């Protein structure tokens, strides 16, 4: 991985596209929250009387029917009453919920565009890595997040103080008012306070969005070597890249089949798996020199049989070796005993056949 100090070049369009496919985009959660808050306040201002009326009617109906559960909601009891009341409350609050949903959708589309990235939904276990978590906790980004949190709390506190302190005397003089009038004054004061806090939160969200863009651009930066390599890869047509990959795969397959000639044994699952092992005594354990599945496994067997390399059918061992050991890697200690017994059997069989071959 290139050093961060070497990443001085702006990201290429391909780098940006690849990052977008992985769900790596510049997006501010604070901007999302502020827009949703403003949408909720606006919908409450428009639909507030309707919501209050609907909730009041529902509450009166619930209290009236609670004393007669057998007659409530068509005689179905308290369960049906609870369902009916819940649906009525949901219907009353539906305009606010719909406003918040469409506001959240609109602000997300405005920030990152309309594109669904399945890769961003996949679980990433690196995010729960304790070392990475500690790095993020004590890194420069955590300091920025702490500053943002303190700023948000401070701004909301200052706005609340500026809105409430001038009205304290007025509120104290209203102690004799009737509850409806006093409630109306409190609602007006709370609404003004909420709008001021939402406006300040929106400013914080806009600032955070530009910070996230700056941070995202910094993360996407490339080294000069990466830009050159990407440019060279871009000059090669997809057809040529595919042909090169196929040629490389054929060459790798050819080298693997040549390695079967020097193998001591091929462990096979009759038709699905084949693993060729070599043990020259120089390494502490046998080495997997070739392995394959289905058609490649069949070809490994054919090459082995044509060149007198013993083929031993052991389906569980063949499957385990195929899954656990890569080519040119030594077998793990868990396989030592099974492979030792297998090689001993192969060597005994070869000694028994040797006199017959020499006599012939």
Written as H for each helix and E for each strand, in order along the chain, the element string is HHHHHHHHHEEEHEHH
* Terminal CA distance: 61 Å
Rg from Cα: 36 Å
Q: Give the low-confidence spans.
A: 353-360
**What would you call the structural class?**
mainly alpha
Q: Largest sheet, described in full?
A: 4 strands, mixed
Q: What overall form do the CA principal axes indicate?
A: elongated
Rounded average pLDDT: 76
Give the oligomer, counting copies of the same chain as homo and different chains as hetero. single chain
In terms of topology, how is this protein built?
Blueprint (H helix, E strand, L loop, with lengths): L12 H9 L7 H38 L11 H35 L17 H8 L2 H25 L3 H5 L6 H42 L3 H12 L2 H23 L4 E5 L3 E6 L8 E7 L1 H12 L4 E3 L1 H10 L11 H24 L1
Parallel strand pairs: 1-4
Antiparallel strand pairs: 1-2, 2-3
Helix pairs in contact: 2-3, 2-7, 5-7
Descriptive labels:
single chain, 360 residues, mainly alpha, name from scop, 2 domains, 68% helix, elongated
Concise overview:
The chain is mainly alpha-helical and 360 residues long. It has twelve helices and four strands; from the N terminus they run αααααααααβββαβαα.
């Amino acid at each position: 991985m290139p050093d961060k100090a070497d990443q001085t070049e702006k990201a290429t369009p391909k780098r940006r596209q690849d990052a977008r496919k992985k769900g790596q985009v510049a997006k501010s959660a604070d901007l999302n929250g502020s827009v949703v808050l403003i949408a909720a306040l606006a919908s409450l201002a428009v639909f507030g009387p309707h919501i209050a009326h609907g909730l009041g009617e529902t509450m009166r109906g619930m209290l009236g029917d609670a004393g007669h559960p057998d007659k409530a909601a068509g005689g179905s009891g308290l369960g049906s009453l609870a369902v009916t009341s819940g649906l009525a409350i949901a219907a009353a609050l539906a305009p606010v919920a719909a406003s918040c949903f469409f506001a959240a959708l609109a602000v997300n589309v405005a920030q990152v565009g309309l594109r669904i990235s399945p890769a961003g939904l996949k679980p990433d276990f690196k995010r729960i890595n304790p070392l990475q978590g500690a790095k993020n906790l004590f890194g420069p980004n955590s300091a920025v997040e702490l500053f943002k949190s303190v700023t948000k709390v401070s701004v909301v506190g200052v706005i609340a103080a500026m809105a409430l302190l001038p009205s304290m005397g007025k509120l104290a003089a209203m102690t004799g008012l009737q509850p409806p009038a006093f409630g109306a004054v409190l609602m007006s004061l709370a609404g003004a306070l909420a709008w001021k806090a939402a406006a300040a939160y929106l400013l914080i969200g806009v600032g955070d969005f530009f910070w996230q863009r700056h941070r995202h651009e910094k993360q996407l930066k490339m080294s000069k070597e990466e830009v050159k390599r990407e440019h060279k890869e871009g000059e090669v047509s997809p057809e040529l890249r595919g042909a090169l990959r196929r040629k490389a795969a054929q060459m790798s397959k050819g080298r693997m089949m040549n390695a079967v000639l020097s193998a001591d044994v091929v462990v096979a699952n009759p038709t699905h798996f084949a693993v060729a092992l070599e043990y020259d005594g120089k390494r502490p354990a046998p080495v997997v020199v070739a392995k394959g599945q289905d058609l490649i496994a069949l070809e490994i067997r054919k090459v082995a049989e044509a060149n007198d390399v013993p083929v031993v059918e052991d389906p569980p061992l063949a499957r385990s070796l195929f899954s656990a050991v890569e080519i040119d890697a030594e077998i793990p200690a868990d396989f030592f005993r099974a492979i030792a017994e297998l090689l001993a059997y192969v060597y005994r069989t070869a000694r028994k056949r040797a006199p017959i071959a020499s006599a012939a």
